[in-house]
Amino acid sequence: MEYGQPKWREAARAAVYAMPLEEIDPVDTEIFRNGTFEFYFERLRKEDPVHYYGKRTDGGPYWSITKYNDIMFVDTRHDLFSAENGPTYFGEAAQKLTNTPPAKMFLAMDPPMHEPQRKSVAPIVSGPNLASMEALIRERVCKVLDELPRGETFDWVERVSKELTSLMLTTLFNTPMEDRHMLCDWSDVATSSEIDVFEQQKIIDQIAAYFGNLFVQRMNAPPADDLMSMLAHSPSTKNMTPEELIGNSILLLVGGNDTTRNSMTGGLLALHQNPAEYDKLMANPDLIPNMVSEIIRWQTPLAYMRRLAKEDVEVGGKLIRKGEVLLMWYVSGNRDDEVIDRANEFLIDRPRARQHLAFGFGIHRCVGNRLAELQLRILWEEILKRFPKIEVVGEPVRVSSSFANGYEELPVRIPL
Questions:
Q1: Domain hosting residue 63, numbered range
Q2: Which of 32, 56, 76 is the last residue of a domain?
Q3: Phi then psi for 180, rounded to 5 degrees?
């Protein structure tokens, strides 16, 4: 039965509601790969919004926080919940299997370590720097769109989303153009929960060697406005440990790739599934900035972030014990209709569209959120100048990850 069709959705939802509640395991990669995750979170928000699953052996028991306000509480209380040990659920298990020290990144640091390292790279997404990058982003978008075939099927992920984000990675890190696809592939490996952990560690070792060499090069060169130069010359990061260097490199690599790339694909798919919104966009291109925020809410490219309780604390009426793991499911909070009106509808003219959780909140809010929005805005401005319609002509293929909520393939066609 075709994914996304009413009968398929009815059957999938019924199967989820027939399960024993205690059997629901939201980090199960398969529910993201087959697109049924939304039904699991729908049920949890209704019946068990702070949900404990204790049967995992690879990453251990964990709590799922699924409602908007509870997620906001956890995300903004770094005094009660620690970000250390990494943003994803699977990290510690993989480190134990491969006997490797954990990577350290500022996203997985608590005060006072977090803020100085975060500030070292913040200038790259300052207002003046974004303004200076806009012309380059637009030039690249135009080139990619102008080279797309008409009247034949092609993969939107490969030809547009992946190409544009890989080009941006070369700008952010100031790396050779020929390395761009390698950087994108490395980001995919870093966020995958399906790849063999020993194979994943081999790739991470390659990433460490590549960015280690880059760091030394930038340290021995005058300061510049790329990420690795900022890390190499900032007082807070120039003496990073090897674990901090690889951790921050992976963080910036994934941050520059996943949010934008998967929103570029998810936005086109959402417009295909909601043709009235596509018509609304064609009639009023001024809606693009607002639509960008709605796309990011709707897609929620990173599905969750992980925290550790620093002390016994109550969340949503449940007692979380010190040391227990919590996953803040942004992908669920962004569908919480108690906070977001008509949350299960894709509305490009939604009031207060930026009131979403996809970038996180508090001290760990996504540092590159404005750059992601800028790239998406320019893409849709240039799409509307060229194409009256881009048709999705096949089913999307989702990535094998419960952390990166995204797509491997999306077959499309631009009519002649």
A1: 1-76
A2: 76
A3: -65, -40
Vertex 48, ends 333 and 22: CA angle to 5°?
Answer: 120
Q: In whole angstroms, what is the distance from residue 21 CA to residue 11 CA?
A: 18
The string of pLDDT tens digits covering residues 61-119 is 999 999 999 999 999 999 999 998 888 877 665 555 555 666 688 988 899 989 999 99
Angle ∠(299,305,308) on CA atoms, nearest 5: 160
Distance separating alpha carbons of residues 241 and 103, to the nearest angstrom: 10
Sheet of strand 411-413: strand arrangement: 153-155, 411-413, 391-392
Q: What is the pTM of this model?
A: 0.94
Q: Quick check: helix, strand or coil at residue 407?
A: strand
From the centroid of its chain, how far is CA 337?
Answer: 22
Quick one: tokens of 390? Answer: 């881009």
CA atoms of 202 and 213, how far apart (whole Å): 17
Together in a domain, 67 and 110: no
C-alpha R_g of the chain:
21
3-state secondary structure of 390: coil
Whether 72 and 109 map to the same domain: the answer is no
Beta carbons of 258 and 188 less than 8 angstroms apart: no
